[in-house]
From TrEMBL:
This is 3-isopropylmalate dehydratase large subunit. Its EC number is 4.2.1.33. The gene is leuC. Binds 1 [4Fe-4S] cluster per subunit. It comes from Anaerosporomusa subterranea. GO terms for biological process: L-leucine biosynthetic process.
Length: 419
C-alpha cells in the first residue's frame, strides 16, 4: 500500500519504514521555531529550568520576533527585550528581529527544507508546506517538550487531495484558489488532516503563490498543507544556498480520506465576508461594500509578486480619499526589492502608507487597528471578530489585486477591470 507525502515525512522523522493514519509516533524535529508572541516568555522560560535548563540542539532552534516588532508600547518593548535576552542566554544564534513575519523569514533563511518536519509556535507554520516541508503549529507547552527532547508525539493524520487543473484567468490568483477551497470544505473541513494540493494549476504557480495556499490550510483546520516540491522549489533553495533536502512524493496508490477536483479556468476573484474565512463569495456578490481601510501585506500575501500586482493596478491612479491604504512587505528583503524596482514609489504615489515588515496590523496589535464600525479589506488570512481591531469592525479578505482595486474605489471592486 502506498503512502502520501505527509505519511512518508512522518515515517522518516520517526525512523519507521511505514506509517498509516491513526498511528501514534514519536517524531524527531528538524526545525523548531518560536516567535515573540508565544515563545520563551510563555511557559517555556519558567519551566525549562525544571527540565534540565538546556536546549536539545541549538542549531535546530530558530527565534523570530515579528508580532510585536517594532514595539508600539512599553509592554511590547519588554516582551521583545525578554525574547532577545532569552535567545542570547540559551545560545540560540538564529535569532531574527525586524526582518518580517516569521514564515517568510523561515523561507528566505533556508529552513523550509523538502521532506523535513518543522514545528512552530504560530498556526501558520503550515506555510512551509509550499516547499514539501511538513510544517505545523504547536503551543508553548508542546514547544517546551520539543526544546528539551527534540521530539514530538504525533498521531499520523489522514490526507485530503485537492486537484486544481486549468489556467487561471487574468485577475485571479492563488488567494482565490485557497479561499474557494476553504469555502468547499468549511473552516473545520480538514481538522487534523493534511491538505495536499496538486494539478497543473498548482504546478504553474510560483513558489511565492504556493506559500499563500499552504499558509491558509490551517484556516480549514488542517494539520498542514503540502505541495510536492519541483524544480521551481529547488531553484529557489539553490538561489539562497539552502539544502535540497530529502523530498517526498505521494505514491500513485496512496490513500486519501477525500478527493476534490476544481477547474481553475472557471474561478473568479473570491471575497471572504465577515466574520468567517469560509464565508466566501464571488466578487460580484460583494461588490459595492464600502470600506475604510485596505491592507496589503502579511505572511499570506506580502511577497514581491503581491506588491507588484497591486502596483500594476494602482500605477497612475489614486487611493480613494476615504480609504487608508496600508502596505507592509512580508520581509525586509522584499521591501528592498520593491524599492529598487520602483514598486514602493508607485504605491506611495497612489496614496499608500508604507509600514515596516511586521505582523502588527494583521492581528490588530499595532500599525493599523480598526475602530468601532470601520470596515476593511485585507490580503491576510483571518477575518474573525476583532481580528484587526474593534470587535464591532468588519473585515473582508481578498487577493492583493482585489485589495488594490478596492482601495481605488472605496468599495469592494473586481480587479479584472483594471487588468
Amino acid at each position: 500500500m502506498g503512502m502520501t507525502m505527509a505519511e512518508k515525512i512522518i515515517a522518516k522523522a520517526s525512523n519507521k519504514l511505514a506509517v498509516k493514519p491513526g498511528d501514534f509516533v514519536w517524531a524527531n524535529i528538524n526545525t523548531a521555531m518560536m516567535d515573540d508572541l508565544l515563545g520563551p516568555r510563555v511557559v517555556i522560560a519558567d519551566q525549562i529550568k525544571k527540565l534540565g535548563n538546556t536546549v536539545w540542539d541549538k542549531e535546530k532552534v530558530v527565534i523570530i520576533s515579528d508580532h510585536y516588532s517594532p514595539a508600539a508600547n512599553i509592554t511590547q518593548a519588554e516582551i521583545l527585550q525578554f525574547t532577545r535576552n532569552w535567545a542570547s542566554e540559551y545560545g540560540i544564534g538564529k535569532y531574527y528581529e525586524g526582518l518580517g513575519p516569521c514564515h517568510q523569514v523561515l523561507a528566505e533563511k533556508g529552513f523550509d527544507i523538502p521532506g523535513s518536519l518543522m514545528v512552530g509556535t504560530d498556526s501558520h507554520t503550515t506555510t512551509a508546506g509550499a516547499f514539501g516541508c511538513f510544517g505545523t503549529g504547536i503551543g508553548s507547552t508542546e514547544m517546551l517538550g520539543v526544546l528539551v527532547s527534540g521530539q514530538i508525539w504525533l498521531r499520523v493524520p489522514e490526507s485530503i487531495l485537492f486537484t486544481w487543473n486549468g489556467k487561471l484567468q487574468s485577475g485571479v490568483f492563488a488567494k482565490d484558489i485557497i479561499l474557494r477551497t476553504i469555502k468547499e470544505i468549511g473552516q473545520a473541513g480538514a481538522t487534523y488532516k493534511v491538505m495536499e494540493f496538486a494539478g497543473n494549476a498548482i504546478e504553474n504557480l510560483t513558489v511565492d503563490e504556493r506559500m499563500t495556499i499552504t499558509n491558509m490550510a490551517v484556516e480549514a483546520g488542517a494539520k498542514t498543507g503540502l505541495i510536492a516540491p519541483d524544480e521551481k522549489v529547488f531553484a529557489y533553495l539553490s538561489a539562497i544556498g539552502a539544502q535540497r533536502g530529502d523530498p517526498q512524493y505521494s505514491d500513485p496508490d496512496a490513500i486519501y480520506s477525500e478527493r476534490y477536483s476544481f477547474d481553475a479556468s472557471k474561478l473568479v476573484p473570491q471575497i471572504a465576508l465577515p466574520h468567517e474565512v469560509d464565508k466566501v463569495v464571488d466578487v460580484s456578490e460583494a461588490e459595492g461594500e464600502v470600506i475604510h481601510q485596505a491592507y496589503l501585506g502579511s505572511c499570506t500575501n506580502g511577497r514581491f509578486d503581491d506588491l507588484a500586482q497591486a502596483a500594476k493596478i494602482l500605477k497612475g491612479k489614486k487611493v480613494h480619499p476615504r480609504v487608508r491604504f496600508l502596505v507592509s512587505a512580508a520581509s525586509r528583503s522584499i521591501y528592498h526589492q520593491a524599492i529598487t524596482t520602483g514598486i514602493i514609489e508607485t504605491l506611495s504615489d497612489a496614496g499608500a502608507m508604507i509600514l515596516a515588515p511586521s505582523c502588527g496590523a494583521c492581528l490588530g496589535l499595532h500599525s493599523g487597528i480598526l475602530a468601532r464600525g470601520e470596515r476593511a479589506i485585507s490580503s491576510t488570512n483571518r477575518n474573525f471578530v476583532g481580528r484587526m481591531g474593534h470587535k464591532e469592525s468588519d473585515l473582508f479578505l481578498g487577493s492583493p489585486a482585489s485589495v488594490a482595486a478596492t482601495a481605488i474605489e472605496g468599495k469592494i471592486a473586481d480587479p479584472r477591470k483594471y487588468l
